[in-house]
Write a structure and sequence with these properties.
The complex is a heterodimer of chains A (287) and B (821). By secondary structure, chain A is α/β, with parallel strands linked by helices. Chain A has twelve helices and twelve strands. In chain A, the strands form three sheets. Chain A has an eight-stranded mixed beta sheet with strand order 7-1-2-8-9-10-11-12. Chain A has a two-stranded antiparallel ribbon with strand order 3-6. In chain A, strands 4-5 form a two-stranded antiparallel sheet. Chain B has a domain of 228 residues. The chains are: A alpha/beta (287), B alpha/beta (821).
Chain lengths: 287, 821
């Protein structure tokens, strides 16, 4: 791997303020092993490029209609509001539709970018970092793509401060290798209850807790901040949170932050033609 | 959904949260806030009467005599509860007349004023009668405005004025010298505080006695100059003493012992200052206030006379009082806030609709400068700096405008306090960067000492009180109109078939982007060419119409050369002029869209684009979406920024080549006031997707809503469109709108400081912030009564949102709100 190695990302966000010290540039990588029911970046989950439809930007079929002409027959029709109505089953692989949309209502989530290009973009805002800010890898799960480690390594070569937001569900080896090139690690621990964790995220929390433990042992002085999104109906009870706290104190981590739930993901699911899973799950729990 | 974060100002306005600090001055606010101003005609009337008596005398002497007439005859009024004296009118909020500027159209404009959309005023019937029967008739045929309009070459005039009787503005190549008699200015207040006007008078008398009576120059030039300074000094001393008389009269009448003591203190102050040196903080504040108020009477300094470096020249008096135990920080704050209220009582009245449209929401820029460096180049922040910043957070009034100078050794404490004040959300302070301003001033001929001691004046500009000598207002150029003339071959939709610009060829016939660009640059150059012709004439004419004995007395080069500041050239000074580039983002984005979509991607032809523009994009929504999504300025995108850099270069090169002929350093600037709104009103749809007759982009900010890559990219684009190798440049105004969530909590303050430090190290000239949720502005539009206290940042000043026109309100809402991610 070298600076020409490519990554699949879905966004680079400058002036990122809530993911580490200082002003940062966040790089959002595609692909995640988890399927959290409340996910606020569902466009990050798939490791492939996909079409997204931002309906609010659509200027209507009467004024435009270019997507309908380009799409397979029946895949796009005029909705009741006059805007394009997509059958995502048919459209999601029709990436060329993004090129015909003048309003950028149809866009491709995911683009290849070389490590070099990422670092050039990060360097553009170096004057804002003031020795504190820098690069944050986010996603998705940034370590889902192996090239992320090369990116971190090259960033350190350039003396860029690095941080990551990880779900912890990666191979221990990869996590520890990445940690060598990280100044700060934001590590998500969503629940201490395995069964619930599986139900709401699709995977067991066993490897996640084991990874956190291994990380702390390998890098006892590394800045590791554990974060827990507090999700109504999932982990918002006193007992559930105490259980997480107990796991953490056993590992020896006391830097723990609870993040309030927000429903930013709802609209994005709609754009991807998917149903917001948390609503569905809550409905099931209630009945 | 997570909760919305509100700024402290929004909390005060929406939840009627109480103020942190209540004092005497807060109880005075009600007299000025939300009150429709009244016109007080005394200044206009007494100047007229005096000018009738002094015809034929030297202009500077006439001006001094008019001041003396005013000092003798004007009504002196002290507001109940005030601790300071010195006003130009009796109403709570008042504006005064300067008929020497535009007295010829006074009658017509007076009738329009109460109903005007932008900054309306009331006037009594009796006063209006005097204006029409006594003031206007004297000035008709004599005003500067009339002479300028007559003297411009035909083709220049066509771009300047409408062909109507009043010569109203065409908003293309807009001269601003006839709605004010000087550009923004700042006096050397130190000489007043340290020596006083009695010293200026004595010094002038001694120099008068020493003149060579055989020398015609001494007798014809120096003598009237010195006589004027003597008369002017008598005038201001008399005026102060009349306030002392009034305070004593009120003291004798009041039943309150406490108020009597206060009035007697006012009387004692006014007997002493500004005639003699101030010795206490209270005297210094009173002396400075009487001086700046008398300066407002003397002339209409564009954007109001600035306050200079208040934390510097008042500091010795504060420290001395503190040592004696005669003052506390809170008492000092209260005295300053009493001045702020008096500043708010005076409203800068623009009679013409042009002036009103340029200065919406009762614009004012009496900038108080804080921070920066001392004359020796050391950091200048002191206790008063922090008291003034605290007052800005405590005291909910949009006066005075506040400018915070920053440099590479500004203490963290200062930057934090500045950031905290910005976070309050009412738009203060604006930030001015020593790291850009000082090297430029040095390169234009200032000494280190003068450059270190600059004060902010106007929207974003700077003055060196004892070195600057150029007072002529410059041209504001509508480059959106230049772009339109490329599309319609020298014509504009608004003005039909009239040929106004150059015939650069049929738009549809251009075969390459370079041809389009060349056509635009030809139109751009043509506008600047006419602006320079205007300016040439303006420099000559102003010297025959305006004089400023007070301003001259407080300027070292003027005193030493016996030359009024409004003369074309004052020996020993530095002459820094300017012209303004208005619509930068609009033009850059339009050209980038044409280059990308017509010539590179061939999405549509120039003919199709022109058809879309003629239809204001109705039926051409696809084209509009495409151009809106093309590369645009403000995103750190080289595609657009390189076009911007070229436009800036061409304009700057012209100034470098031809400014010399004037003996004036004519600098390229990007400071709009609110002119981007009236300028937009004459420009039809533009190729960046902007609808016809809506505002152009403001200053060096991005087009409304075009900056989608966050505020760091805005600063970077600003940096990358500046030609650093040309010093024929000065202020660039930059507006950034942040959502309060971006600066939430201590972490938010720290990151705002990081942002300010990066701004400083990028050596950008100016930045200011609106920290507000756009939703709050939308609510204020719907329910103005509930939101009447809501302040917003416009262009180097803050104004009450509900006092703005719908156009400007919409423009503010349309500016991109930078969210925290």
């Amino acid at each position: 791997m070298n600076r020409k190695t490519t990554l699949l990302i879905f966004n680079i966000q400058k002036y990122s303020l809530h993911d580490g010290d200082g002003i940062r540039t966040a790089v959002f990588l595609k692909g995640c092993p988890l399927r959290c029911a409340w996910c606020c970046n569902p466009e990050s989950q798939s490791g492939e490029k996909e079409l997204i439809y931002r309906k609010t930007r659509c200027i209507g079929m009467d004024a435009c209609g270019l997507c309908k002409q380009a799409a397979p027959t029946g895949a796009i029709r005029r909705g009741e509001d006059g805007k394009a109505s997509l059958c995502m089953e048919f459209c999601k692989n029709e990436l060329r539709l993004a090129d015909v949309c003048p309003a950028r209502a149809l866009e491709i989530e995911g683009r290849e970018i070389t490590i070099d290009e990422v670092l050039q973009t990060v360097a553009q805002d170096e004057i804002f970092y003031r020795g504190k800010g820098g690069l944050t890898l986010s996603g998705g799960e940034p370590l889902f793509q192996k090239a992320s480690i090369a990116l971190l390594k090259e960033a350190k070569e350039d003396h860029i401060n690095t941080a990551i937001e990880t779900c912890g569900f990666v191979s221990t080896e990869r996590l520890l290798e990445a940690a060598a090139y990280l100044d700060e690690i934001f590590f998500d621990l969503k629940s201490a209850e395995e069964e619930k964790h599986i139900r709401y995220t699709g995977v067991s929390n066993g490897p996640i807790i084991a990874n956190l433990n291994a990380l702390k042992k390998a890098y006892p002085h590394k800045r590791i901040r554990v974060r827990t999104p507090v999700i109504p109906g999932f982990n918002d009870t006193k007992e559930a949170l105490s259980a997480i706290e107990a796991v953490l104190s056993e590992i020896g981590i006391y830097d723990w932050q609870k993040l309030p739930y927000h429903a930013y993901g709802v609209g994005k699911y709609e754009m991807l033609g998917r149903v917001y899973p948390l609503d569905q799950m809550r409905a099931q729990e209630n009945f | 959904m997570s909760e919305v974060t509100f700024s402290p100002q929004e909390e005060r306005v929406i939840y009627k949260k109480n103020l942190a600090n209540i004092n005497r001055a807060t109880s005075l606010i009600g007299k000025v806030r939300g009150v429709k101003p009244q016109i007080d005609i005394e200044r206009g009337l007494y100047f007229t009467r005096s000018f009738q008596e002094t015809e034929g005398e030297a202009l500077i002497v006439r001006w001094a005599k008019a001041l003396l007439y005013y000092a003798k005859e004007s009504t002196v009024h002290i507001e109940d509860g005030q601790l300071l004296a010195g006003r130009g009118g009796t109403a709570g909020r008042y504006g005064i007349l300067y008929p020497e500027l535009d007295g010829d159209t006074l009658g017509i404009n007076i009738e329009k004023l109460p109903g005007r959309v932008t900054s309306p005023f009331d006037i009594s019937e009796e006063a209006a009668h005097i204006v029409k029967t006594e003031i206007e008739p004297y000035w008709k045929g004599k005003t500067y405005h009339e002479e300028l309009a007559k003297s411009l070459p035909e083709d220049t005039r066509r771009l300047t004025y409408n062909p109507d009787e009043e010569s109203s503005s065409r908003f293309i190549v807009n001269e601003t010298s006839s709605f004010r008699s000087s550009i923004q200015w700042v006096h050397d207040y130190e000489i007043v505080l340290q020596k006083g006007f009695a010293w200026i008078k004595k010094d002038s008398e001694e120099r008068l006695a020493a003149l060579d009576k055989d020398s015609a120059y001494d007798m014809m030039e120096k003598k009237p100059y010195l006589e004027a300074l003597i008369i002017m000094s008598d005038a201001i001393i008399l005026w102060a003493n009349r306030y002392a008389d009034e305070a004593e009269r009120q003291a004798a009448l009041t039943e309150s012992d406490a108020r009597r003591q206060e009035l007697l203190a006012i009387a004692a102050n006014c007997r002493k200052v500004p005639a003699y040196p101030a010795e206490t903080f209270y005297e210094a504040v009173q002396s400075q206030w009487l001086t700046q108020m008398f300066s407002r009477i003397e002339q209409k300094t564009g954007t109001i006379i600035s306050n200079g470096r208040m934390d510097q020249y008042l500091y010795p008096y504060y420290v001395a009082d503190l040592k004696k135990g005669a003052i506390t920080p809170l008492k000092a704050q209260e005295l300053l806030e009493c001045v702020w209220v008096e500043m708010a009582a005076f409203v800068d009245l623009y009679l013409s609709e042009t002036g009103g449209a340029f200065n919406e929401g009762y614009a004012h820029w009496e900038a108080v400068t804080i921070g920066g460096q001392t004359k020796d180049g050391l950091d200048a922040t002191n206790d008063l700096t922090y008291i003034i910043l605290k007052s800005k957070r405590d005291f909910p009034l949009n006066y005075p405008d506040l400018a915070a100078r920053v440099h590479t050794r500004s203490p963290r404490k200062y930057l934090y306090d500045v950031a905290l004040t910005i976070k309050d959300g009412s738009g203060f302070p604006k930030i001015i960067n020593d790291e850009e301003v000082i090297p430029l001033l040095l390169s234009k001929g200032a000494t280190f000492e003068e450059a270190f001691d600059y004060a902010v004046s106007g929207c974003a500009e700077c003055r060196m009180p004892n070195r600057d000598t150029y007072t002529s207002p410059g041209a504001y150029i509508n480059f959106g109109a230049a772009l339109e003339m490329v599309i319609y071959n020298g014509r504009m939709q608004k003005y039909g078939d009239e040929l106004l610009g150059l015939e650069t060829g049929e738009f549809e016939a251009f075969e390459t982007f370079d041809q389009v660009l060349a056509a635009y640059l030809a139109q751009q150059k043509n506008f600047i060419r006419h602006a320079f012709r205007q300016q040439y004439q303006i420099n000559h004419l102003r010297a025959r119409h305006f004089a400023t004995p007070l301003g001259s007395a407080l300027s070292k080069p003027s005193r030493e050369s016996y030359t009024d500041l409004h003369q074309e050239h004052v020996p020993g000074g530095i002459d820094l002029g300017y012209f303004e580039f208005i619509g930068f983002g609009t033009v850059v984005d339009s050209l980038a869209a044409i280059k990308k979509l017509v010539f590179e991607e061939k999405r549509f032809t120039l003919a199709e684009l022109k058809a879309a523009l003629l239809a204001d994009f109705e039926g051409y929504e696809v084209i509009r979406e495409l151009v809106k999504n093309a590369p645009s300025y403000g995103n750190d995108d080289p595609y657009a920024d390189e076009i911007g850099l070229l436009l800036d270069k061409e304009a700057g090169d012209f100034a470098r080549k031809y400014g010399k002929e004037f003996g004036v350093h004519i600098d390229l600037r990007y400071v709009p006031f609110t002119s981007h709104v009236p300028f937009g009103k004459v420009v039809s749809a533009t190729p960046n997707g902007r609808k016809a007759y809506t505002p152009l982009s403001d200053g060096s900010s991005a087009s409304q809503g075009a900056d989608v890559n966050g505020p760091t990219a805005i600063l970077q684009s600003n940096f990358k469109t500046k030609n650093w190798n040309n010093n024929y440049r000065a202020a660039r105004l930059l507006n950034i709108k942040l959502s309060p969530g971006c600066v939430k909590g201590d972490e938010g303050t720290e990151k705002l400081v990081d942002f300010l430090e990066a701004f400083r190290d990028l050596k950008l000239w100016h930045v200011q912030f609106n920290v507000m949720n756009s939703d709050t502005m939308r609510k204020a539009q719907k329910d103005p009564e509930a939101y009447k206290d809501l302040l917003v940042r416009i262009a180097g000043y803050s104004a009450y949102f509900t006092e703005l026109s719908k156009d400007l309100q919409d423009d503010l809402i349309a500016r991109t709100e930078q969210q925290a991610i």
